[in-house]
Structure formats: structure tokens, C-alpha cells
Amino acid sequence: MTLHKIFFILLSGLYVSSAYPANFSITPVKDNLYQFSNGTHHAVFVVTDEGIALTDPISEAAAKWLKGELKSRFDVPVRYVIYSHNHPDHVYGGEVFAEPGVSFIAHQWARDDLLATQADTEIPELVFNDEMRIFLGDTQIDLRYHGPNNGKGSISINFPQQRVLHVVDWIVLGRMPYKTLPGYDIRGMINSTRDVLAMDFDILVGGHADTGNKDDVRFYLSYLEQLYEAVLDGMRKGKSLQQLQQEIRLDEFESLKMYEEWLPLNIQGVYNDLIDQSYLHLRQE
Ligand SMILES: [Zn+2]
């Protein structure tokens, strides 16, 4: 490598780190709908004549970057910020968009949790329990609660005209569910995902990992169902966690990223959830 080339790489590295964080991105999804990402966490927004509606701000740094990009690319005001659920790694940074004319929306239980934990983000003033429909310009947005699955008040965000659905945390495409499934209600995840599959959409943008279609969501649901059945079946037979981790293989799903690394952890997550929710360890055989 020539000295010149090394110097160029150094310079371009400096440019990337000082000018803008390389991980932040905006990607077109469909028509006036875009994905916003910090690399690991994804949100979406729609741009209309009457302004922008966006979902999770992700973090203060991500929100500041997004605010600048929205201004320079579209130059219409942000009108709605919709929180997908209560977790700080998705909804922090809301204050960056808090100004007159901007409405913050969340499920009632997400708001309750943000208040109770004194979360350092904008607290939503518009809440709902089952469903809420928003119109902005010519764009319709449907928010729906599907029951408990992960976190508090975790909803789906549907854009019926674009046939795009956004779900954060409880549907993950192209990758295994996260490690030991912290805070997950496995049966709730299965029920909520079945509910989503009855909806009309072509594209699902996840809050993590990949964007996919309805077949990808079916594949994910099938993984959850088989994981749950395998662990439950083993526990009914009195097997230990270590035995389950040694015996259960779901190789039909080995194309999912982190399959080998996280399968034992996913098994542990379901095992612990069945103890927490169903007290299976207290059954008298
Ligand atoms: Zn998440």
C-alpha cells in the first residue's frame, strides 16, 4: 500500500467520523415511506404535503441527525412522533422533536411506564388502548395493540396505502430472536404474530434485523412455535435446561443469523418464561 493511499484512508475515516456518524441512514421503502436506522435499531417515517409522521427517535444523537436530514431533504414540518413501545433504546431522543405543532403518540401502557420510570424523553400526550387511526395529508396510519409480547404497550404501525407494516422487537426477520429473550412473553409473541399475519401487508419493516415479506413473517412464527413446543414438551418430560440445550435442534431455521450462537439462549429464554409464567417447576408429578 502506498503512503498516498494510507493517507487517503486516514482522511476519509476522519471525514466520516467528524462530518456525520456513518451508521445513521435513511432508506426508501415504498412511495413516501422511508426507513430510518442507527445500524442496529430501525424506525420509519412518511412524508406528506402536510408534514412528516415518524416512529421511534431511537436516541438523542440519532434524532438530531434525523431532524437535520428531514429539514434538508424534505423541508416540511414533523407533525407526529409515534412510539412503538416503552423501551429507552427505541424512544429516547423524543425531546429533539418536541415543539409546538408536534403530537407524540403511544399506547397507554407505554406512556404509563415512561412516566413511572421518569424516562428522559418526551412523554406522549396522545394515548390509545386498542386502535388509533391517524390521517396526515393523504396518508393513513393505523396503530394497533395485539396484547402483551415484549415491553409495555408494544404496538404495530400500519401504512395500509403503502401496504407496509412496522413492528419493533416482537417480530424479527432474518435473525434469531435476541439471546435469552429478555422481557419476552413467548406465548404473547406467538399470539401477536398470528394476529399480524391476519392483516393485509406486503412488506414488514422490523425494529431490528431485516425487512421482509409475509412469508418471512410466517417463517419467523414457525420458528417461535417450534421453539416453544420443543421446550414445553421437554419440560413436561422433566428434562433439565442443560438437557434441552443439548437435545433441541431446529435446523430448518439455520439460515437465520445467529442460529448456532443464540439457539441455546433462546431455549433458555423459553424455559425461564415457562417457569416465570406457568410455574412449571412447582408441578407435582
Ligand atoms: Zn429493541
Detailed description of the structure:
The protein is of the alpha/beta class and 285 residues long. The protein has a domain at 3-169: Ribonuclease Z/Hydroxyacylglutathione hydrolase-like (Metallo-beta-lactamase, Chain A). The chain is 37% helix and 22% strand. It has helices at 3-19, 60-73, 88-91, 108-116, 186-197, 214-236, 241-247, 259-278, and strands at 25-30, 33-37, 42-48, 51-54, 78-82, 103-107, 126-128, 131-136, 139-145, 155-159, 164-167, 203-206, 211-212. The strands form 2 sheets. Strands 1-2-3-4-5-6-7 form a 7-stranded mixed beta sheet. It has a 6-stranded mixed beta sheet with strand order 8-9-10-11-12-13. Helix 2 links the parallel strand 4 (51-54) and strand 5. Helix 6 (214-236) packs across helix 8 (259-278). The relative contact order is 0.10. The structure holds zinc ion (ZN). Zinc ion is lined by residues 87, 89-90, 168-169, 207-208.
Describe this structure in a few short sentences.
This protein has 285 residues and is of the alpha/beta class. It has helices spanning 3-19, 60-73, 88-91, 108-116, 186-197, 214-236, 241-247, 259-278, and strands spanning 25-30, 33-37, 42-48, 51-54, 78-82, 103-107, 126-128, 131-136, 139-145, 155-159, 164-167, 203-206, 211-212. Strands 1-2-3-4-5-6-7 form a 7-stranded mixed beta sheet. It has a 6-stranded mixed beta sheet with strand order 8-9-10-11-12-13.
